[in-house]
Amino acid sequence: MDKVLAKVGEVAVLPQVVCQVLEFTGNEDAGTQQLVKVITVDPGFSAKILTQANSVFYALPRKVTSIHEALMFLGLKQVRQLAMAVGVFDLFVGKNDKESLRRRAWWKHSINTAACCRAISMPLVDVNPDDAYTCGLLHLIGKTLLDRYDPEQYNRVQSVVDQGAPDVLAERAVFGCDHVAVSYAASVKWGFPDTLSQGLDYFSPAGEPGPEHSLRACVAIGTRLVKLAQAGIDPKDVRVEMLPTWPLDVLVVPGERIPMIAERGMNAIASSEQFVI
């Protein structure tokens, strides 16, 4: 873990604008003009935002040419989600086709999980949907950091996973640490709010009730629902045994509500392609 984290600064630094967007979203007194300034500090980043905003998906009445216009047409939350999505994307780009293929799969899974987490968190009192989205978006970032640290070693991990082993156990066997622990440690290194950092630890059972544990539970359920959706499972057929039990306990989700939660999450997954670059 120490070796991986020591190299994090060399192999991948979370774009400063993403950190600023995170900081901005945590400040209730901040205004839209401040978000515009945060995003437009990087011309290349702004171009990505405008490209996404002008995509066919949004069907805006006319092409937008500035971040301020994008805010007017799309709204603060949509632009914020776009900023997070395109800002993190560069960490999931590989140096060769093999690396890019698996990292793009992780990226797509992360985007889908983010959308799912936001959807299933909306009825919950103690979970901020935007925080749930962020945790879902970043929950696999440890994978790409491990991969960037030593791609050949991650090839070994992938070989073990392809044979049916859980990815966390395969990573521990090869690297001595797993992507969940790396995601958490990297987020601390980057200065994330503690609640968000703890929300990335979606693998371990949660402790005492609290917002951070509810976030972890949302991510644990969200990432599993993405896998079920990829397998073609109908939300009406999702049962208790298909989901990890501790997140259901944390969120107090009774068995009869699971199909409803699954439908809400899977509908969001189906709509999340707008963010897949």
CATH top-level class: Mainly Alpha
Query: What is the beta-strand fraction?
Result: under 5%
Give the mean pLDDT. 83
CATH topology heading: Hypothetical protein af1432
The counted number of beta strands is 0
Order of helical and strand elements: HHHHHHHHHHHHHHHH
CATH superfamily: Hypothetical protein af1432
Taking all Cα atoms into account, the compactness measure Rg is 18 Å
- The end-to-end distance, rounded to whole angstroms, is 30 Å
Q: What topology does this entry show?
A:
Elements: H1 2-11, H2 16-25, H3 32-40, H4 43-53, H5 67-74, H6 76-89, H7 97-121, H8 129-138, H9 141-149, H10 151-162, H11 167-175, H12 179-189, H13 194-199, H14 211-230, H15 245-250, H16 258-271
Helix pairs in contact: 1-9, 2-3, 2-6, 4-6, 5-6, 6-8, 7-8, 7-14, 7-16, 8-14, 9-10, 9-12, 10-11, 14-16
Description of the structure:
The protein has 277 residues and is an all-alpha fold. The protein has a single domain, classed as Orthogonal Bundle (Hypothetical protein af1432). The chain is built from 16 helices and no strands. The mean pLDDT is 83.
What are the defining features of this structure?
277 residues, mainly alpha, Hypothetical protein af1432, 16 helices, globular
Could you give a short description of this structure?
By secondary structure, the chain is an all-alpha fold. It contains 16 helices and no strands.
